[in-house]
Design goal:
Histidine-containing Protein, Chain: A; 8-stranded parallel beta barrel; about 15% strand; alpha/beta; Glucose Oxidase, domain 1; 4 domains
Length: about 650
């Protein structure tokens, strides 16, 4: 059979290396031939290269075409992936901070003011502040010339395939030792090493008379140039990955071992033509004082990993006079994209002053790790962490999180083709609770639908998904999904201070139905001889209905947690994913703040507390208004916790 379906790409950032690798992986599970078609071009879903070359941006309208006996299921699976607006955690990826924008000129005495502009080399800002240190010139082994003509076609093909296989295996070993986004990057490049398009081009060149080495270099150069010619910045940056893969494969063919960044002395400023993801991915980049490259961009995988590690970096520095080559010491400003080879005394002094000031500020904030902040008028405020996976526990604890204000359980379901078992869920919840024995851990029950579809759960297509079957509505409609989660939560409850909150509640009937299902699951577990304990039940306030019914709802639960993202879009009737109405989607809109005050008043009358777990909780100016309204718990990404603790200490409730 042949099936076609029109879909809109909702994968953040479009189809670059990692999403392409995921699509290839999904396609291998079906016998059907699958193609993505866009603007007159078609690409097989078996080739990451072909998919990347389509240059599919987020929001692109494409067609999925499948031919074969399982075409219907294959299309459903691929469509589910393409239409899923998953964030970085859902992709299994590390956070990828946006590249910093180019700074404006300033005259505030900071580095980069007019005094020093004439002494700076400029490049693309990679962020993470300033650095100074001894220069380390990073160079990979030089490739010897390859014979241009094949000696024996079969021998050359076998040698090329073995070299490609070895590189792929090496990258996967690095990925296995890495974690989060780094592992995903390395696995994506490893997937490219086995790509049929890459193989076909190399084999075709060898059969036309080229040697294995000459074929690898030519095929890699051609593919890199095709990617570099694409309009999308991120897709162009993937040409660096292809160039790196080509170089690694050619080195393997010559029996040469690539140099590891682990050999770079700690505290050095790394200077290189460019750094590939394969080179950066297996290294603790935080060992480096800074990074300077002559090529590359802020969208490269190396740049993303550098920002995640907090390493100051500048990319794409033009160096016609080879000043970097002979530098003994280098100073740089990653936020301004400026590099100073062999800085003079005044530049050194200014850079060191800025570096030390930044360290002092970070150190001062570290003093707040164990602090439970109070406003100046004595109100205790809990500052907790929003988490998407148990892998983020260490970061949250290091930032002084006072428990977990939101654990998004949907991420246990995303980025996989099957459902997590009760046991998998139990182990994740148990680990969370044991990590924060003195603080509440708030786990949100499964919140999918609308902008968070899951591949393993077939959902009907809806014209207005934000107003459709999502959150608690879906869970109650699908007890086969909800009961294993409730059972896992009940089993985990003995290990800590478990709080559970229900998303998208609009009325008491949803709470009553959930409580009945909890009781049913508790009785079944006790009959099975399993240990269980009660947990504290609360709800998310995200709908106008919950705001208007807050007084009634407050009598049914022990706490409210306001989801400001959804509450704002529903109160303002403005899609939070639509940039055209972004000005309306702000928590400081009077109508939204009025709704929050209504909720806090109802909670205070019922004797329950109110938290906020939406993005607004990490905005200091908005947080002050939330605290004045009666909010006593703020939950945010771990990176914002210490700054928020510091901000709270200076706030007085009105």
């Amino acid at each position: 059979m042949e099936i076609q379906r029109a879909v809109r790409v909702a994968v953040p950032g479009g189809i670059h290396a990692r999403p392409a690798a995921e699509i290839v992986k999904l396609s291998k599970g079906y016998n059907s031939e699958l193609f993505l078609e866009y603007q007159g071009k078609s690409a097989t879903t078996r080739s990451s290269f072909k998919l990347i070359l389509l240059s599919l941006k987020e929001g692109a309208d494409i067609t999925i075409r499948a031919i074969g006996e399982d075409a219907d299921r294959a299309v459903d699976d691929i469509a589910g992936f393409l239409e899923a607006r998953q964030d970085n955690h859902a992709q299994g990826a590390a956070e990828e901070p946006a590249p910093p924008s180019a700074p404006a000129d300033c005259a505030d005495g900071r580095l980069g003011a007019a005094l020093h502009l004439d002494r700076a080399m400029t490049g693309i800002a990679g962020g993470s502040g300033v650095a100074i240190g001894p220069a380390f010139q990073f160079r990979q082994p030089v490739l010897a010339p390859f014979p241009p003509v094949a000696a024996d076609v079969d021998t050359e093909i076998r040698a090329a395939m073995e070299a490609m296989q070895h590189v792929g295996q090496s990258l996967r070993r690095q990925a296995a030792a890495a974690s989060g986004g780094t592992a995903e990057v390395l696995n994506a490049i490893a997937e490219l090493s086995a790509d049929p398009e890459w193989h076909a081009r190399i084999v075709g060149l060898i059969r036309s008379g080229r040697s294995a080495g000459a074929a690898i270099l030519t095929a890699g150069k051609d593919l890199a140039e095709e990617l570099a010619a694409l309009e999308d910045t991120y897709a162009r940056a993937r040409s660096e990955d292809i160039a790196s893969l080509t170089r690694l494969t050619a080195l393997q063919l010559q029996g040469k071992q690539p140099i590891s960044l682990n050999e770079v002395p700690t505290g050095s400023i790394l200077v290189a033509d460019e750094i590939s993801a394969a080179e950066a991915g297996g290294t603790d980049l935080s060992r480096l004082a800074g990074i300077v490259t002559r090529h590359g961009s802020a969208a490269s995988h190396a740049a993303i990993l550098a920002r995640a590690a907090g390493v100051p970096a500048v990319f794409g520095v033009a160096d016609p006079l080879a000043l970097l080559e002979g530098a003994r010491e280098i100073a740089l400003d990653g936020d301004r994209g400026q590099v100073f080879p062999n800085p003079d005394a005044s530049v050194r002094a200014e850079i060191i002053e800025q570096r030390d000031r930044a360290k002092a500020e970070a150190l001062a904030l570290q003093a707040l790790v164990g602090v439970a902040p109070r406003t100046k008028d004595g109100v205790a405020i809990t500052v907790a962490a929003n988490l998407g996976s148990v892998e983020e526990i260490a970061q949250a604890k290091a930032a002084g999180a006072m428990g977990v204000g939101l654990f998004r359980t949907e991420f246990l379901f995303m980025n996989r083709n099957d459902l997590p078992t009760e046991e998998e869920q139990f182990l994740a919840y148990q680990r969370l609770l044991q990590a924060f024995p003195e603080h509440p851990v708030i786990i949100r029950t499964l919140d999918i639908g609308a902008d968070k579809p899951v591949r393993s759960i077939a959902l009907p297509r809806e014209d207005n998904p934000f107003l459709g079957l999502r959150g608690i509505r879906l869970c109650l409609a699908r007890p086969e999904l909800f009961k294993p989660q409730l059972r896992a939560l009940l089993r985990a409850a003995p290990f800590g201070r478990l709080h559970v909150m229900l998303p998208m509640v609009t009325g008491t009937s949803e709470i009553d139905a959930t409580v009945a299902m909890i009781d049913e699951c508790r009785r079944a577990l006790i009959d099975e001889g399993k240990d269980v304990a009660p947990f504290v039940l609360g709800i998310m306030v995200e709908t106008p209905a919950a705001v208007f019914a807050a007084q009634t709802l407050a009598r049914k639960v022990k706490f409210f947690s306001i989801g400001t993202n959804d509450l704002t879009q529903y109160v303002m009737a403005a899609d939070r994913l639509n940039p055209g109405v972004a000005d309306l989607c702000r928590v400081d809109q009077p109508a939204v703040l009025s709704a929050i005050r209504m909720v806090c008043t109802a909670a205070e009358q019922a004797g329950i507390w109110v938290g906020v777990c939406g993005e607004a909780a990490s905005d200091a100016s908005v947080a002050q208004q939330l605290i004045s309204a009666g909010v006593t718990e703020l939950s945010m990404s771990p990176a914002s916790i210490l700054k928020m603790k510091n901000a709270i200490s200076g706030h007085v409730r009105e």
